[in-house]
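Dear support,

I submitted the protein below through the web form. The confirmation email said the job was done, but the results page showed an empty box. After a refresh the structure appeared. I'm attaching both so you can tell me whether what I see now is the final result or a partial one.
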Amino acid sequence: MSKVAVMTDTIASAPQEKAKEYGIKVIPFHVVMDGKSYLETTIDKNQFYTRLKQKENLPTTSAPSVGEFLEAYQELSRRAEAILHISMTSSFTMAYGAAIEAKEIAWERLPQTAIEVVDSKTVESSELLIVLEAARATRQGKNFNEIIQIVNNMIPRMN
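What the results page shows now:
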């Protein structure tokens, strides 16, 4: 069992090979097209971008649910003592709030697992840099508090 599992959302755009290499759990957002919800990881990106260019009948997105976050925490708790979820900025999404709410539920269901949810205050590549640095620190054997400190020190330096 590893000490710390790092988790993020699909907004960080972590390449699958990097996520696999570092053991990063990526929780997908939902994309709604034509009234049907798809996990962001399963949609045809070409169809999605074509739809955006047409500027009609635009797709929308929605954040992962509290239940989806809780399920991810439960999965990660089987392989790690602690979970660090690095969220896209809370200014743009309800995902951060859902992750916090799931963390509160997890305290009762997973009392042996420490969980921290960090608002990266950013998106995309800046968020990914923070996630990768946390994953590297995990691989180096840093403890949970050290990794949280590394992440919190990086956030104000991201543009």
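Response: this is the final, complete result; the empty box was a page-load delay. The helical segments are 16-22, 45-54, 66-77, 95-109, 124-139, 144-154.
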